[in-house]
Design brief:
homoheptamer; 95 residues
Chain lengths: 95, 95, 95, 95, 95, 95, 95
Amino acid sequence: MKFKPLKDNVVVQVLEAKGKTTGGLFLPDTAKEKPQEGKVVAIGTGKRLKSGEISPLSVKVGDKILFSKYSGNEVKIEGEEYLIFSEKDILAILE
Amino acid sequence: MKFKPLKDNVVVQVLEAKGKTTGGLFLPDTAKEKPQEGKVVAIGTGKRLKSGEISPLSVKVGDKILFSKYSGNEVKIEGEEYLIFSEKDILAILE
Amino acid sequence: MKFKPLKDNVVVQVLEAKGKTTGGLFLPDTAKEKPQEGKVVAIGTGKRLKSGEISPLSVKVGDKILFSKYSGNEVKIEGEEYLIFSEKDILAILE
Amino acid sequence: MKFKPLKDNVVVQVLEAKGKTTGGLFLPDTAKEKPQEGKVVAIGTGKRLKSGEISPLSVKVGDKILFSKYSGNEVKIEGEEYLIFSEKDILAILE
Amino acid sequence: MKFKPLKDNVVVQVLEAKGKTTGGLFLPDTAKEKPQEGKVVAIGTGKRLKSGEISPLSVKVGDKILFSKYSGNEVKIEGEEYLIFSEKDILAILE
Amino acid sequence: MKFKPLKDNVVVQVLEAKGKTTGGLFLPDTAKEKPQEGKVVAIGTGKRLKSGEISPLSVKVGDKILFSKYSGNEVKIEGEEYLIFSEKDILAILE
Amino acid sequence: MKFKPLKDNVVVQVLEAKGKTTGGLFLPDTAKEKPQEGKVVAIGTGKRLKSGEISPLSVKVGDKILFSKYSGNEVKIEGEEYLIFSEKDILAILE
């Protein structure tokens, strides 16, 4: 199954916050920070501007991104969880 | 009876969340996830842009789509439930 | 007495939710669903676009329509109840 | 004293809801419906569009109109109560 | 000291609601209606439109105006109270 | 240290409400009115309009201004308190 | 690891409020003011205007800036905390 996000929507696979402290201790689930990093797995064709033109997205499939906490729609496809959100909720690309 | 949605409205038949775990157990109703998948059964003619042009929809009848939780207007036509919402609440097409 | 709705307003006669189950039982008032179907009895001349043009309505008098729950202004004219709302709250025409 | 409403404001004299049932009984004040009918007593010169043009109003002095519940600003001039609201809160003209 | 309101701001001297009934009785403060009339004492140079043009105000110094309840910013200059608000909160000019 | 406010931001030094009644009595802090006067100490270069042009500010450094209660961002630079706000929250210049 | 903020986003390293009074006393954490100063460590390529043009940012990497309290998205990259926000939440550059 494949995704074809509409307009400026982006499908993101959330990268789990690491459950280990820098000292090597494992953290219980509640102590983990809400993850804010993800990998882009599908992008829309771009948003239609008022002029009629399509504005292409600034991220591409494979980009590792940083998104704002609590943004996005959680969806579950074939047992795997994704976040879908508008490109404007993407804060930065990590290189 | 047929639907003719106005503007960028889309009539969607909700696809029930499967009431069975991957292990084959049946789940009670309250344990089911709120469904977010649906099949497009009717689409509007498109939204009129400020320029006067009509912007055609990006989904077509028969498309299996993903929509955001809690979006849409629930309607019941001849005993069957549908969701009607604006195309902008559609997140992705599943292929 | 006649109505002349302004701009993109539409006067709708609400079609009562049927107080009978498919099995033929009569339902008490509180068990009825809030009706969402209506018949257009008067339409405005259209909304003035920013360009100055008038955008004609997509519904016409006599159309049976579906509208979103809780939308519209309830008015009572000569003892009869109507809903007046902007055309954008009309979801679909039923044919 | 005369009114000169600004822009798309309209001064309306509220027509009291009739305190009598169709059977001829007088209703106490609390049982009356909130009135939604009024008579236009003064209109503004129209709203300035972004293009710079003035968009003329669609109602004229003397029109009997229907307005949405709870809209408008209550003002009292020389002991008489009026409602002033923007033309966009007028739902329909009654003929 | 003089005022030079910015843009479409208007400085208004509030005209006190009369503390006397039509029958000549003096009303205690709490029984007075919140005043909605005022006299324009200073006006801005007008709001800059998107086109770059300045849209002149429709009120002039000395105008007796009607404004909507609770609108405006209360300011006190040299012991006297004024209201400053945007011209769009002015409902009508009284003549 | 100097400020260079961005866009239409203005840095304002708040002028303390006078803690003395007109009769010469000193007022405790809680009885003082929230100050609404200030002196402009730095201004931005202006807001970029949609057309691409920069719209210059209407206030200049040194202006004594009146601003609306509770507007602005409190900042502390080198021990001194300032308010920074958008020019649109400035109501009037006092001359 | 490097950041490439999207559009008009800016990555800022928060400069800690100094935990020392001017008299030299150390302040406990709760007595410190919420910091509002930061250093720009990465900037986006600019926001796309409606005309299609890209509007360049007014801050550059290395700028010491003042931002409004509570604005911005807290992110943690490789153990270090940053704030990412839209350029419009930057109030002033400190020189």
